[in-house]
Amino acid sequence: MTRTTVPDRPVSSVPGSAEDAGTDATVMNGGPSVELRRNRGARALALVCVLGGVLLLVYPSDGALLRTIIAGGAVALGVVALVSALRPFRFGIGAEGLTIRRPGLRRMIRWAEVDVVVLDEPPRRDGYPKSPRLLLVPAPGVPIEPVTARHPLDGRPAIELLVLDQVREQPEQVSAALTRYAGDRFVDLPALRRAAFADPDLPVGLRGYQMDRVDRLIRRGQDALVSGDAPTRQAARGEIERASAAGLPIAQRGYHTLQTDTVLDALVAALAESQPTDRETAT
Question: What are phi and psi of 245, to 5 degrees?
Fold first, then answer.
């Protein structure tokens, strides 16, 4: 079984912080591990919902029933979010493996138990990027439950370890830490996709191509290029050509048609290249 070869590169330092009250973890630059720090944004939003709902309940006005329903919903939503934000959290990346403490998974996962850790970025939604996530595929014979995801390229069962909007560190910082400690077990899939075919910056306007459809086709082509597998590239090329020939769906707000056609033509050309590739399958 092969793994993606990630070129050697300097590891950027993860910003450090002294441990203090309200800090979930300490980042130790140059130390034996790196601790990711929980994002406090969800906690603040939960408090706003609770306080807003309470204020609506305290100050009476006309339309009391509707006001009470809205206030009760805001308080309930805020309490649920606050309870979730206050649950214990730890995500450590070190020489021995990953130390994780979150709902549904509380244990240390040693590198020997890991086949691959993938940094993935879900396809855009309505033209807006979604937060990257970390997926783990266990080594053969290692039972790690629950299975909550699939490897983006080959579909193997995986565990969603973390959505990166839950922590303060940037994806580049998390990638640097995993590159240092996980070695060739770590795959930075967004970086490989961009190296295979750069993410296009398509303009958005009225009466353009449906954005989700275009983004899925581009992602399909990028993943086929990253796979390094000729039949996979051929299948992706055929799918894009058929979609273009049939005519992509038009939306009230979508990607500029002419520039999108140019990008898809370039992607088809990249998939059609017959010369050998040095990309290895990210498995």
Answer: -65, -35
Distances (CA, A) of 128 to 122, 202, 273: 11, 12, 30
Output the DSSP codes for 166-216: GBSS-HHHHHHHHHHHHGGGEEEHHHHHHHHSPPP---EEEEEE-HHHHHH
Strands 149-150, 33-35: parallel, antiparallel or unpaired by DSSP?
A: unpaired
Dist. CA 101–CA 40, nearest whole Å: 17
Q: How far apart are CA 71 and CA 64, in angstroms?
A: 10
233, amino acid identity: R
90-94 sheet: strands from edge to edge: 33-35, 90-94, 97-102, 105-110
Q: Is 59 strand, coil or helix?
A: coil
DSSP 8-state code for residue 31? S
Instruction: Give, as one character, the DSSP assignment of residue 220.
Output: H
pLDDT digits (tens, 9 = 90+) for 111-134: 999 999 999 998 888 878 889 999
Nearest to 8 by CA among 193, 169, 174, 186: 186
* Helix, strand, or coil (residue 101): strand
* 13 φ/ψ angles, rounded to the nearest 5 degrees: -75, 145
Q: Torsions phi, psi of 133, nearest 5?
A: -140, 155
Joined tokens for residue 60:
């009476």
Assess contact for 167 and 161: CB atoms under 8 A: no
- Spatial separation of the C-alpha atoms in residues 240 and 277, rounded to whole Å: 21
* Per-residue model confidence as pLDDT tens digits over 161-215: 999 988 889 999 999 999 999 999 999 999 999 999 999 999 999 999 999 999 9
Q: Which residues fall within 8 angstroms of residue 109, CB to CB, at 6 or more apart?
A: 97, 98, 100, 136, 144
CA pair distance 282, 151, nearest whole angstrom: 9
